[in-house]
Design goal:
heterodimer, B: alpha+beta, 12 strands, flat
C-alpha cells in the first residue's frame, strides 16, 4: 500500500482496491475489511496522512505518504524483495 | 460515460449505512464514498440503482462492516495505549520536577493555579486528558481525536498548463529523440503552441526554480506544490515569476518559447510525484 501511494501520490480507498486488482491481473482482491483498518493504522503510526476533499456531492478521504512513510515504503519494499529472494532459494535451489 | 450518484441516491446509501451502525465518523464518510464508487461502477455496467446498492452492501458480508469498524478502532487504540504508557512514563519523570517547581512558584507568585496547569500539560496531549475523564461509552470521541487529520494544502496538478485546446506532439515514455535521433526516455509531454502563448501554473505552489539558459531545457520554471507534487515547464520564452514566489492555480507564469534544446516553439511539461517523473497526461483534461 505504501508503495502504491509512493507511486501515485494521493489516493482514496476505493481507488486503492481497484488498483490492486488491476495491477495483480485480477489475482489479488484487497477487501475493505483489510484495507481500512490498515489505512487507519498507518495514519495513526504517522506513515500516511489524509485530507478530506469534496468530490461531487460527497466528501472523499485522500491518503498520501508522510516523509516517514516514504522512507518506510522504500525499506519495506527492499525487505520484502529480500524475503522473496530467500524463499526462492529455498523453493528452487540452483543445481550446481 | 462517467455516472455520478444524485444527492438523493447518496442520501439513500447513507441511510442504509446508518442502519449498519457505523459510528466512527471518519470511517463513516470513507465507507459512504467507497459504497457510492462501487454503486457508480455497477450503474455503468447497466445495473439498476437498488440492485447495485444491495450488491455493494452484500460485498462486505454479514457483519463485515461492523467487524471492519471494531478492527479499525482496535488497531488505532493500540497506538493510543502506547501513547498513554509513554505519557505515564513521562509524568513519572516530570512529577517530582513539577512538585519542586510548584512549591517554588507558590512562594514566588500567588496565582499558582495557572502555572500548575501549564506544568501538568508538559509532554501530554489533550487526548490523554480526555481519555482519563471518559467513560467506556464515550470512548469513540477521543479515538477520533487521536487520529488527527493532517491538512496539506495545494495538491496534485488539476488543470492544463496551456489554456484552451492543446496538442501533444510527443508523449511520455520511450521515443525517438528529435535531435539525438535515438531512443530516449521522455520524462514529460511536449505541447505544440505558438511563440508567446501564456503558460499557467497547474496547481497552487511556490516557484522553486526559475532560470534563464541557452542550453538544455532553456528558460525553465519548477513549481513545488507540496511535499509530494512538483511540475516543471521548459523551453520558455519569457519567465514572469521569480524564485520563492507564491503562485495560484491558473496564474500565468511564463510564455511558450523555443529556448534551449528545441527545434520549434513548444512547452515541455513534466509532473513529479515523490521525486519521480510520471505521465502528465493523467493530470490533464482531454483536449
Amino acid at each position: 500500500m505504501l508503495r502504491l501511494l509512493e507511486e501515485h501520490g494521493q489516493m482514496y480507498g476505493y481507488q486503492i482496491t481497484q488498483l490492486v486488482r488491476k495491477q495483480s491481473n485480477e489475482q489479488l482482491l484487497l477487501t475493505e475489511g483489510a484495507l481500512y483498518p490498515t489505512l487507519h493504522k498507518l495514519e495513526a503510526d504517522g506513515l500516511i496522512k489524509s485530507k478530506i476533499e469534496k468530490v461531487g456531492n460527497r466528501p472523499r478521504k485522500y491518503y498520501r505518504l508522510t516523509p516517514a512513510g516514504q522512507k518506510a515504503a522504500q525499506s519495506k519494499a527492499a525487505e520484502f524483495q529480500a524475503f522473496v529472494q530467500i524463499m526462492q532459494l529455498i523453493l528452487k535451489p540452483s543445481k550446481s | 460515460m462517467y455516472l455520478s450518484l444524485t444527492p438523493e441516491q447518496v442520501a439513500l446509501v447513507e441511510q442504509r449505512l446508518a442502519a449498519e451502525r457505523i459510528h466512527f465518523s471518519t470511517l463513516h464518510d470513507e465507507l459512504l464514498d467507497h459504497l457510492c464508487c462501487k454503486i457508480e461502477n455497477q450503474l455503468e455496467s447497466g445495473i439498476a440503482f437498488h440492485d447495485a446498492c444491495d450488491r455493494a452492501f452484500a460485498s462486505f458480508g454479514e457483519e463485515g462492516m461492523k467487524e471492519l469498524q471494531s478492527q479499525t478502532i482496535q488497531l488505532v487504540q493500540q497506538k493510543s495505549r502506547l501513547m498513554r504508557h509513554l505519557f505515564l512514563a513521562l509524568s513519572a519523570i516530570l512529577f517530582p520536577t513539577f512538585l519542586f517547581w510548584s512549591g517554588y512558584l507558590h512562594r514566588a507568585f500567588q496565582p499558582t493555579e495557572v502555572q500548575h496547569v501549564h506544568h501538568h500539560h508538559a509532554g501530554n496531549t489533550p487526548v490523554d486528558d480526555l481519555r482519563k475523564t471518559n467513560t467506556a461509552r464515550e470512548v469513540l470521541q477521543p479515538l477520533e481525536l487521536s487520529v488527527p487529520s493532517v491538512e496539506f494544502c495545494e495538491g496534485p496538478p488539476s488543470c492544463n498548463p496551456l489554456e484552451g485546446n492543446y496538442e501533444i506532439t510527443s508523449g511520455f515514455g520511450q521515443r525517438m529523440h528529435p535531435v539525438y535521433k535515438r531512443k530516449k526516455h521522455h520524462r514529460g509531454v511536449d505541447l505544440k503552441a505558438s511563440l508567446g502563448t501564456p503558460v499557467v501554473a497547474t496547481s497552487d505552489g511556490v516557484i522553486s526554480i526559475s532560470r534563464m539558459r541557452k542550453k538544455g531545457s532553456g528558460n525553465f520554471v519548477e513549481i513545488t506544490h507540496d511535499d509530494v507534487y512538483k511540475t516543471t515547464y521548459s523551453h520558455l520564452h519569457e519567465i514572469l515569476v521569480s524564485n520563492g514566489q507564491q503562485v495560484k492555480k491558473g496564474e500565468v507564469i511564463a510564455t511558450v518559447g523555443s529556448s534551449g534544446f528545441s527545434t520549434a516553439p513548444h512547452l515541455h511539461y513534466e509532473v513529479w510525484v515523490n521525486g519521480k517523473a510520471v505521465d502528465p497526461s493523467s493530470f490533464m483534461t482531454q483536449p
